[in-house]
Amino acid sequence: MPRGKWTNHKGRSRRFTNPEELEEQRKREEQERRWKKNNRGDDESSSEEEEKPATKGDKSNSEDESESESESEEESDDNKKGVAGLIQIENPNRRQLKAKKLATLNETLDTAEPAQLSRREREEIERQRKKLHYQKLQAEGKTDEARADLARLAIIKQQRAEAAKKREDEKKEKEMAKIQKSAETQKALGK
Questions:
Q1: What's this model's pTM, rounded to 2 decimal places?
Q2: Cα dihedral value 49, 54, 59, 63, nearest 10
Q3: Are the beta carbons of 143 and 134 closer than 8 angstroms?
Q4: Distance of CA 51 to the CA centre of its chain
Q5: How far apart are CA 106 and CA 104, in angstroms?
Q6: Residue 34 to residue 27: CA distance in whole angstroms
Q7: How far apart are CA 63 and CA 50, in angstroms?
Q8: Alpha carbons 165 and 185: distance in angstroms, whole number
Q9: For residues 39 and 79, is the Cβ–Cβ distance under 8 A?
Q10: CA 126 to the chain's CA centroid
Q11: pLDDT in tens, 130-160
Q12: Best exposed site among 62, 134, 144, 177 by fewest CB in 10 Å?
């Protein structure tokens, strides 16, 4: 006797289903399907006969119809699987899906009010709107930060312009000094 709840299957001989048994099982299932399909077809034809109007002299026919209707109701209950056939349950949370026409959907979309946003969504939209507005003012140079940046840029531009002018002056002085030196050397050699 094995210990514990489960048995160990290691080392046992394996049992395989032979193809004949599988074929028989498949045929049985196929026959059951055909039988169910045929019975359903019979039920539909009998329900069509029930729907025919009764003549004036056929009171017994109307009684048969009422009996067959109650039987069909019982059969519909039997078709429900599990507990659903025994207990009638109305779930208020279950939403019945109804087919809607496209025209009515379009009308409801056109007349529908915009959905109410939650507080977080409204705050997020407001934040984004303020950020865009600030960036616009920043680009136009109307904020204090933008003015400070522009002033700093103007100072840097001025410093760079002065540095460039100074370099140009130094370059010209060097060229003038070279020209003077070469003129002096030529004078010294030419004497």
A1: 0.32
A2: 40
A3: yes
A4: 47
A5: 5
A6: 11
A7: 11
A8: 30
A9: no
A10: 25
A11: 999 999 998 888 888 889 998 999 999 999 9
A12: 144
